C-alpha cells in the first residue's frame, strides 16, 4: 500500500503540501495567534520541535500573494475554525528571516550570513518595490537587495523593509524571525557574544519596538534571553515558554498525533518503545513527543518494522550544555547527575530570564539551560515567595543516551591526560593499599550511571588501565575455565602478568569478603593456567571489591 513520504528535514510548508508529504495538522496555531493578539510573541522551544515549519505555515497563511494559497490549507482545521480566522488569510505583507545561518566561527562570517539572509528577503519582494514612490528609498532598497548597504544600515534593515512593504501595500506587516538565539549561543561559545548581542538588539529594537508599520511579529528560539540583554524596552513582548499552558500542543506531537502516525504506517505495535524513547516532554500541562525523532524512527521502519530505536535528536547538536555541566560538576552535582540518569528527580529554582554570560556563574543557571532546551522535563512545580521551583527529570531514553555518552567521553578524555603512573606502579609492584587508595580517589571524581553494577566498575578500571604503556590489556578474555575480568600481560613472557577479578559489595563491611571471593574464583577457575602454559612465571592476582565510591584490594 502506497503511503505518503515523511518530511524529514522539510521545513517549508508549501513544499511539504505540494509534494504530498505526511503532515501533522498544526494549523490551529494560527487560530491562537489571532485569538490571543500578541503584538510581538516569542516562542521558546527545544530544537527540532517544529518551530521553523510552523513559522513557514504562518507565512503562507497571512501573506498577500498574486496566487491564491488557500489550497495549501484544504482539509485542515484552520479552515473549519470560522470566518473570523479565514478572513485574515492573505491580508498582510510578510517578512520572514531565519538567523540559523549566523552560526559561524567569527563575527565577520556571522554578519556576512545576515547580509545574505536580508538580501534574500529583499529580493523576494523586489517586484512590489517598483511601486515605491521615493527614489531615495528605492535606491536604498536596491542596496540591501544587492548586499551593498553600509554595515550600520543593517541595524535597521528589517524596519526599513517593513516600511517599504507597508508603503506599497497599504497594510501593516507581519514579521517572522526564526531561531533568533542561534547567533547568540554561537557567539557566546566563540567569544564574541557582546558584539553579537548589540547587533541583534539593534535589529529587534528598530523592527519590533519603534516600528509603526508593524502589524504583529512572531519570534522563535530555544531560550528566552533576558529583556535587558536583547529585548530592551520591548513592552509589547509576550513570551511563551515551555512553562506556559497556552500554545502548548502546537510544538511537538501529542499522544493522539503519534497514535495516528503509527496507525497510518502500520507500526502501532511499536507504540511502547516509541513512548519510552521519544515521549516525556512537558509544555505547560501538555505532554508531547519529540517530532524530529518520531518521524526519523518511523522513516527507519520503511523496510524493517523492527528497526532499532536510535537517538536521532542527540545527533543534531554538540550537546555543549550537557558537556559544560559535566565538566564543571562538583561532588553534589555529580550525585545529582547520577540520580537523574538512574531515573530519579531533582528540584531546582527556575528563572526564565537568562543571558549566556550568566550560564557559568552558578550551577543553577546551567540546570536552567538544560531545562529550557529539552534536556530535562517538568514533573511538578511550586512557588516559595518570589521563586518558582521545578521538580525535573530526564524526559526519555533518547536524552538519557546523551547524558551517558557525554559522561563517557568526558571520563575518557579526563583519563587520557591524567597522571596514572603511581597506579600502574602499585599494580605491578603488588602495593594493594596504594592501588585501592588511587582507585577510590578517582571514583570520587567520576559519574556513575549503572547504579554501581559490576559492568560500571569494569568499564571504570579498564578505562584507567588503557594507557598502562607496554602492557597488553585484555577484558573478559577466556583463560582456564572461565573469563577473568581484566588481564594485563607484558609482551615478553619474561615480564609480569596480572589477573584482576572484580566484585561488588552490598555494604562497606562486605568488601573484604568480596575480595576473598574474587581471589577464590581466580584459583577455582584456574585463570593463571593458560598464562603459565604461555611461559609466564611472575603472575600477580588481585581480588578487587567496590562499594559505591570505595575500593578495597587483596
How would you summarize what this structure contains?
The strands form four sheets. The chain has a five-stranded parallel beta sheet, sandwiched between helices. It has 554 residues and is an alpha/beta fold.
SSE inventory with pairings:
Elements: H1 13-19, H2 28-36, E1 40-44, H3 51-62, H4 83-86, E2 94-98, H5 107-124, H6 135-145, H7 157-169, E3 173-178, H8 182-190, H9 193-209, E4 214-221, E5 237-240, H10 255-264, H11 271-278, E6 281-283, E7 286-288, H12 291-300, H13 320-328, H14 331-341, E8 346-350, H15 363-372, E9 377-384, E10 387-393, H16 397-416, H17 421-428, H18 432-445, H19 454-465, E11 472-475, E12 486-489, E13 496-504, H20 511-524, H21 529-534, E14 538-547, E15 550-553
Helix pairs in contact: 5-6, 7-9, 8-9, 13-15, 13-16, 17-18
Descriptive notes:
The chain is built from 21 helices and 15 strands. It has helices at 13-19, 28-36, 51-62, 83-86, 107-124, 135-145, 157-169, 182-190, 193-209, 255-264, 271-278, 291-300, 320-328, 331-341, 363-372, 397-416, 421-428, 432-445, 454-465, 511-524, 529-534; strands spanning 40-44, 94-98, 173-178, 214-221, 237-240, 281-283, 286-288, 346-350, 377-384, 387-393, 472-475, 486-489, 496-504, 538-547, 550-553. With 554 residues, the protein is an alpha/beta fold. The mean pLDDT is 91. Helix 8 (182-190) runs antiparallel to helix 9 (193-209). The protein folds into four domains: 13-248, Rossmann fold (3-Layer(aba) Sandwich), CATH 3.40.50; 252-315, no CATH class; 318-400, Arc Repressor Mutant, subunit A (Orthogonal Bundle); 418-553, 3-Layer(aba) Sandwich (Trna Endonuclease, Chain: A, domain 1). The strands form four sheets. Strands 2-3-4-1-5 form a five-stranded parallel β-sheet, with helices on both faces. It has a five-stranded mixed β-sheet with strand order 11-12-13-14-15. The protein has a three-stranded antiparallel β-sheet with strand order 8-10-9.
Amino acid at each position: 500500500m502506497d503511503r505518503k513520504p515523511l518530511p524529514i528535514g522539510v521545513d517549508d510548508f508549501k513544499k511539504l503540501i505540494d509534494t504530498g508529504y505526511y503532515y501533522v495538522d498544526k494549523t490551529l496555531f494560527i487560530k491562537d495567534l489571532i485569538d490571543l493578539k500578541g503584538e510581538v510573541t516569542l516562542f521558546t522551544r527545544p530544537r527540532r520541535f517544529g518551530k521553523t515549519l510552523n513559522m513557514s505555515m504562518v507565512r503562507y497563511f497571512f501573506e498577500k500573494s498574486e496566487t491564491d494559497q488557500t489550497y495549501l490549507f484544504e482539509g485542515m482545521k484552520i479552515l473549519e475554525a470560522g470566518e473570523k480566522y479565514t478572513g485574515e488569510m492573505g491580508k498582510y505583507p510578510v517578512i520572514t528571516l531565519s538567523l540559523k545561518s549566523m552560526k559561524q566561527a567569527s563575527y565577520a562570517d556571522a554578519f556576512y550570513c545576515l547580509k545574505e539572509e536580508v538580501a534574500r528577503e529583499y529580493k523576494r519582494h523586489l517586484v512590489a518595490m517598483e511601486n515605491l514612490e521615493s527614489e531615495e528609498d528605492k535606491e536604498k532598497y536596491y542596496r540591501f537587495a544587492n548586499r551593498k548597504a553600509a554595515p550600520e544600515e543593517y541595524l535597521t534593515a528589517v524596519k526599513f523593509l517593513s516600511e517599504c512593504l507597508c508603503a506599497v501595500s497599504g497594510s501593516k506587516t507581519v514579521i517572522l524571525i526564526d531561531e533568533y538565539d542561534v547567533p547568540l549561543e554561537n557567539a557566546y561559545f566563540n567569544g564574541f557574544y557582546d558584539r553579537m548581542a548589540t547587533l541583534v538588539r539593534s535589529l529587534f529594537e528598530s523592527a519590533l519596538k519603534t516600528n509603526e508599520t508593524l502589524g504583529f511579529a512572531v519570534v522563535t528560539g530555544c531560550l528566552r534571553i533576558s529583556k535587558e540583554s536583547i529585548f530592551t524596552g520591548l513592552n509589547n513582548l509576550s513570551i511563551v515558554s515551555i512553562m506556559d499552558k497556552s500554545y502548548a500542543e502546537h510544538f511537538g506531537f501529542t499522544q493522539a498525533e503519534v497514535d495516528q502516525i503509527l496507525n497510518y504506517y502500520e507500526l502501532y505495535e511499536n507504540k511502547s518503545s516509541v513512548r519510552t524513547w521519544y515521549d516525556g516532554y512537558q509544555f505547560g500541562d501538555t505532554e508531547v513527543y519529540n517530532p524530529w525523532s518520531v518521524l526519523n524512527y518511523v522513516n527507519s521502519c520503511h523496510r524493517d518494522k523492527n528497526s532499532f530505536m536510535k537517538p536521532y535528536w542527540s545527533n543534531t547538536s554538540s550537546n555543549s550544555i550537557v558537556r559544560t555541566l559535566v565538566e564543571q560538576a562538583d561532588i553534589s552535582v555529580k550525585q545529582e547527575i547520577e540520580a537523574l540518569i538512574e531515573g530519579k528527580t531533582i528540584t531546582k529554582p527556575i528563572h526564565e530570564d537568562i543571558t549566556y554570560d550568566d550560564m557559568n556563574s552558578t550551577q543553577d543557571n546551567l540546570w536552567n539551560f538544560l531545562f529550557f532546551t529539552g534536556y530535562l522535563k517538568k514533573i511538578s512545580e511550586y512557588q516559595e515567595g518570589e521563586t518558582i521551583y521545578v521538580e525535573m527529570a530526564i524526559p526519555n531514553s533518547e536524552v538519557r543516551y546523551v547524558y551517558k555518552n557525554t559522561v563517557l567521553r568526558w571520563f575518557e578524555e579526563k583519563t587520557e591526560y591524567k597522571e596514572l603512573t603511581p597506579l600502574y606502579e602499585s599494580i605491578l609492584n603488588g602495593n594493594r593499599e596504594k592501588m585501592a587508595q588511587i582507585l577510590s580517589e578517582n571514583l570520587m571524581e567520576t559519574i556513575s550511571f549503572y547504579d554501581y553494577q559490576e559492568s560500571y566498575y569494569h568499564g571504570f578500571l579498564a578505562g584507567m588501565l588503557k594507557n598502562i604503556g607496554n602492557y597488553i590489556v585484555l577484558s573478559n578474555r577466556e583463560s582456564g575455565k572461565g573469563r577473568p575480568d581484566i588481564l594485563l600481560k607484558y609482551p615478553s613472557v619474561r615480564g609480569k602478568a596480572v589477573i584482576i577479578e572484580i566484585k561488588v559489595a552490598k555494604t562497606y563491611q562486605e568488601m573484604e569478603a568480596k575480595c576473598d571471593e574474587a581471589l577464590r574464583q581466580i584459583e577455582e577457575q584456574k585463570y593463571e593456567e593458560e598464562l603459565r602454559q604461555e611461559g609466564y612465571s611472575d603472575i600477580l592476582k588481585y581480588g578487587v571489591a567496590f562499594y559505591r565510591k570505595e575500593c578495597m584490594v587483596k
